[in-house]
């Protein structure tokens, strides 16, 4: 079907209309939100995903730009000994270049028509992506390189046209040339607040972030703050068969010790609420131009919205938030005000 011509009876018209309406609703709601936010002097931030769903319009309509015999993923590491297979086809660098990076430009313009800040997920992907052959283990994959400078030039041009700020998600294994390129082009990186409270030797130090990074406690690939404090991410990893139980136990012991030291140094109890409040205010006082707090962290949610390395094993992106903005606990607004006072 992917390679042939589709007739009127080959696709359920109801499904087509459903997706059209869903796209229209998403765009309309985001546009209205951005308009209201701008009227109040508030910037809206969005994410540009690292890849495209294999059944998405971009992939089906321009199949020559994608390598369908492979999937983007990640090589084996300490957290995922078997590596990761993410399930979407990688773009073919030479063909994207010959096409003038048209899809990249279109995606940037579409996002920046609404967002004042855009975070590029896995910004290392502008330099290289890990290709895994279809049906094979991630251990058999290899890196395929693209032109980082050419693509970053496009990012900068589109950001300048839109008057927007760009953040590159430069976490994990980051080739040194990526961080150097971000700095050279004036794009922001990321600082994660967890780093201090995983290490006893650093736990007493106040959380800081440089002026070249946004400051936050996590991303969609990380546990919530409460989940981190309780070690839920470690329990989940072992349940899924990722890593060694003894290693996870050692990490849990070190993390618990660091959290106790961090709480004592701040004169607070080692509770999730007290720790999150104190450390959020510390990030607020940092040199970072943007401090990002995830809404569910504000009320101590333990369950993550996404578990890396899983697809059907966990209900990723399907769980409803416990609160809406309108009925969030009163202490949520108080914490945000306290953080804002530090800016």
UniProtKB/TrEMBL annotation:
Q: Which organism is it from?
A: freshwater metagenome
Q: What class of enzyme is it?
A: transferase
Q: Which InterPro entries does the record cross-reference, listed alphabetically? A: GH, Glyco_hydro_77
User: What PANTHER family does the annotation carry?
Assistant: 4-ALPHA-GLUCANOTRANSFERASE DPE1, CHLOROPLASTIC/AMYLOPLASTIC, 4-ALPHA-GLUCANOTRANSFERASE DPE1, CHLOROPLASTIC_AMYLOPLASTIC
The record's similarity note reads: Belongs to the disproportionating enzyme family.
Which terms under GO biological process does the entry name?
carbohydrate metabolic process
What EC number(s) does its UniProt record assign?
Answer: 2.4.1.25
Any one Gene Ontology MF annotation carried by this entry is:
4-alpha-glucanotransferase activity
Identify this protein by name.
4-alpha-glucanotransferase
Q: Which reaction does it catalyse?
A: Transfers a segment of a (1->4)-alpha-D-glucan to a new position in an acceptor, which may be glucose or a (1->4)-alpha-D-glucan
Q: Cite the entry's keywords alphabetically.
A: Carbohydrate metabolism, Glycosyltransferase, Transferase
């Amino acid at each position: 079907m992917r390679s042939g011509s589709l007739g009127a009876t080959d696709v359920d018209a109801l499904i087509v209309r459903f997706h059209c309406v869903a796209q229209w609703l998403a765009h309309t709601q985001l546009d209205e939100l951005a308009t209201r936010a701008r009227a109040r002097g508030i910037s809206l931030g969005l994410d540009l995903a690292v890849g495209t769903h294999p059944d998405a319009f971009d992939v089906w309509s321009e199949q020559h730009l994608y390598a369908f015999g492979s999937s983007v993923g990640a090589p084996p590491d300490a957290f995922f000994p078997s590596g990761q297979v993410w399930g979407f086809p990688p773009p073919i660098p030479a063909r994207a270049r010959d096409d003038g990076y048209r899809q990249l430009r279109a995606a940037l313009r579409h996002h920046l028509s609404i967002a004042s800040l855009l975070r590029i997920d896995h910004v290392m992907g502008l330099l290289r992506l890990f290709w895994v052959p279809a049906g094979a283990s991630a251990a058999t994959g290899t890196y395929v390189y693209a032109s980082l400078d050419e693509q970053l030039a496009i990012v900068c041009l589109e950001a300048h046209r839109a008057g927007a700020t760009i953040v590159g998600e430069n976490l994990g294994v980051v080739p040194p040339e990526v961080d150097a390129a971000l700095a050279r082009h004036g794009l922001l990186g990321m600082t994660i607040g967890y780093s201090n409270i995983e290490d006893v030797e650093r736990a007493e130090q106040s959380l800081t972030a440089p002026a070249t990074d946004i400051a936050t406690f996590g991303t969609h690939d990380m546990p919530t703050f409460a989940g981190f404090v309780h070690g839920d991410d470690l329990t989940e990893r072992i349940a899924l068969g990722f890593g060694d139980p003894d290693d996870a136990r050692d990490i849990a012991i070190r993390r618990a010790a660091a959290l106790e030291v961090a709480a004592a140094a701040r004169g607070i109890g080692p509770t999730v609420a007290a720790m999150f409040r104190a450390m959020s205010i510390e990030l607020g006082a940092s040199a970072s131009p943007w401090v990002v707090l995830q809404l569910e962290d504000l009320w101590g949610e333990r369950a993550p919205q996404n578990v890396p390395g899983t697809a059907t094993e966990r209900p990723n992106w399907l769980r409803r938030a416990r609160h809406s903005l309108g009925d969030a606990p009163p202490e949520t607004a108080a914490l945000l005000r306290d953080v804002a006072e530090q800016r």
